[in-house]
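The instructor's notes for this session suggest beginning with a concrete chain rather than abstract definitions. Hand out the sequence below and ask the class to guess, before any prediction is shown, which regions might be ordered.
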Amino acid sequence: MTEPDVQGNEREGSGKKATAVLILVPIIFLLLWSSGFAYVKMGLAYSGPITYLTLRFGLVLVVLLPAVLALRLPLPKSGREWGHLAIVGLFFQCGYFGFLYAAIHLGVSAGTTALIVSLQPILVALLASRYAGERVDATSWVGLVLGVSGAGIVIISGSVIETASAMRVLYAVASLIGITIGTLHERRFGLSVHPLVSSFIQHVVGFAVVLPLGWWIEGLYITWTWEFIWALSYLSFGVSVVSLLLLLVMIRHNEAHRVSSLFFLVAPAAALYAWVLVDEVMSPHTWIGIAVAALGVAIVAPPDGLRRLRLFRR
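After discussion, reveal the predicted structure:
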């Protein structure tokens, strides 16, 4: 075998390894994303939801600020871009995370909360016609029916039928609305800032909002335990920072679209994490509901879905 042949085989072998790694990256990304719900519940045993978010945003900023400065990434060039990023940050960091933490704090299970917010691709697909001028096909409506039906089965099987319990679920619905509006706003105005800069600005906005609220409402009270420190560290560095790095890898290799094809795994994976980590037991009816809702998400978010849904570009 000649030297060029050997080199060609080596390049082919390294190319196959790189492809295998890139296939795993979206899976790891979504597994990290799904595990976050259980770790939110774990940490909320020792801190209020706003205080918990304040610490998480603060730790993420400690990592992102040096990265943005070291890489000398360009900042938004106009006040319009800054304003749109701030709006997206309010809906994502405060609307999505704020109501999500509140829902779990008030007693909605991590699995149920994950199921409700995982319906986001369906809601975005339906609202895109009005907000972004895109046509809604029949598949989106089928996905909506399946998603809502699955969520209804989970909620009813969990006996969330009393008025007080139903009000708690509304916090999870508000979280879903927050992440949906944030996605649609970014999509409509075509924000093209580097993901690290976008994430940094959004976390600054979130931190500026929750810090005074946490001090005023909760007194920033924390019971420091090793379990709380682990949960906070995992969410801040594992879910927020590592997920962002994985996203950058996918964008660089044009593989980010694969995430949407796996989005239906969020709810069942989150339920499994909650079972293992925080002892949440799901009834058979709950698993049926999760499966129905996951099917609805799966048919709405095809393999090229992220070319339309820009949720993870941050």
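Then share the key points. The two ends are 47 Å apart (CA to CA). Residues 34-307 form one domain.
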